[in-house]
Write a structure and sequence with these properties.
Layout (H helix, E strand, L loop, with lengths): L1 H25 L10 H11 L5 E3 L3 E8 L3 E10 L7 E6 L4 E5 L9 E9 L5 E11 L5 E11 L4
Parallel strand pairs: 2-8
Antiparallel strand pairs: 1-3, 3-6, 4-7, 5-6, 7-8
């Protein structure tokens, strides 16, 4: 009985290690050049260039929206630096807010976009949500903000 239990534990550990390894390998996002984003960042460090992310605006107010409505806003940014810019992650402060962005390196002087979708379902009143943009830029983190006032629909 102890042998069977030990074999089950051993099988579970092997399976867990396998799942973790698959996750690590599959999370290596590659750019159009075939390099992972971390390889692009390392190449940039070796070249001595510095990307600079500059957003046209860092906040947006949707004003009054109906409860249950989904709204979106697209933030525009440029790479004002002298090396490729890579957005490594965009993390919302709430599950009701979903950021979408291009994960490919952005050359100097080019323009990129971060779309932020807000779902007002289950919410009411004034809502302020943040999206932290982490990149290889200096500074490494920029915070975008959206806000809305959720009003009950007159149905």
């Amino acid at each position: 009985m102890k042998i069977i239990r030990a074999m089950k534990i051993e099988a579970f550990i092997i399976l867990a290690i396998f799942v973790i390894m698959v996750g690590i390998v599959s999370c290596q996002r590659t750019s159009g050049s075939g390099k992972t984003n971390s390889q692009v960042v390392n190449d940039q460090r070796n070249d001595g260039g510095t990307p600079v992310i500059k957003f046209t605006d860092e906040s947006h107010d949707f004003g009054d929206i109906a409860a249950g409505e989904k709204v979106s806003y697209t933030f525009t940014y440029t790479n004002d630096g002298d090396a490729n810019l890579v957005i490594l992650s965009a993390t919302a402060s709430c599950g009701c807010t979903v950021p979408k962005w291009n994960k490919d390196p952005l050359p100097p002087g080019k323009e990129g976009y971060v779309e932020v979708v807000f779902n007002s379902s289950g919410r009411s009143g004034k809502q302020i949500k943040n999206v932290a943009i982490r990149s290889n830029s200096d500074p490494a983190v920029k915070v975008l903000q959206i806000q809305a006032n959720i009003v009950e629909s007159n149905n």
